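Hello,

I think I submitted the 2-amino-3-ketobutyric acid job twice by accident. Can you confirm which output corresponds to this input? Input:
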Amino acid sequence: MKEDKVLVTGAGGQLGTVLVKALRKLKGTKNVIATDLFVKPEQQDLMLPLDATDIEAVAQLVVEREVTQIYHLAAILSAQGEKQPLKTWNINLKSFFTILEVARRHRLDKVFFPSSIAVFGTKAPKKHTQQDIFLNPTTVYGMSKAAGEHWANYYFIKYGLDVRSLRYPGIIGHQSLPGGGTTDYAVDIYHRAVNNEPFICYLKADTALPMIFMEDAVRATLELMEVPEYQIRTRTSYNLSALSITPAEVVKSIKKWYPSFEVTYKEDFREAIARSWPSSILDTQAREDWGWKPRYLLDDITIEMINELKKKYNLHA
Ligand code: AKB
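Support: Only one job matched these inputs. Its output is below.
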């Protein structure tokens, strides 16, 4: 049987860093080509520089390395995107068009496109938001993801391209740092806690958002991409849910291990973005179609984050 050859864009990002490792374990190191726009000197053995908006460069790599699947993770996220709206739209859409076109022209087997809870806006129900609800995103990032979902569906219907997608909640992981998202606080807070430093939270204490632990997010991605094509009935993007938490709940969980952890709340523009998103989403279709089930709840996440970050920072207390 032909081996899968996987190209990953945005491989140096929060999810990419961990997903590439998991893909290499699953498919073999030589079969996973990790790329990013900027590659740090220490990453040069593991990653290639690639501008995902450059169609010639992407096509050349796909042909030379006989790529069969692309995981297109490169994107500008919600908070960063609001600082450069036109650039964000341009990069997020142009890079996705590049990937879709290269995949179509070179008849690739599959494409993975990460969408987000940012596709939902003020017209969607705040709680238990369903899959097929009206989308009125309020950020450029959300607009680019909602448009991307429709393009994914279009390429599937028009060209039969097997594009699969998940609407990720905020991802909490110890392996990598997020950058430019509205949900980043839920990672940063653990770094502060293990270093016994106070934390200033840019969201209000009671702003609930959907979140997921990195291990669950990576497993969901691989499960979605590995199931037979007939099981995929949603061709825009699947809601993916694990837990819904507020900063106050994260703090309460951390305080079980760090009772004197200090947090102050000083909201900024990210509070309005968070308020425009659902506090929880329903992932019934993902559960029904390909058996999705999360494993980590808040205290499990807190224990893992604390233990792993203590190792990372050489803290043996
Ligand atoms: C962000 O906060 O922008 C991302 C997301 C929820 O897509 N983490």
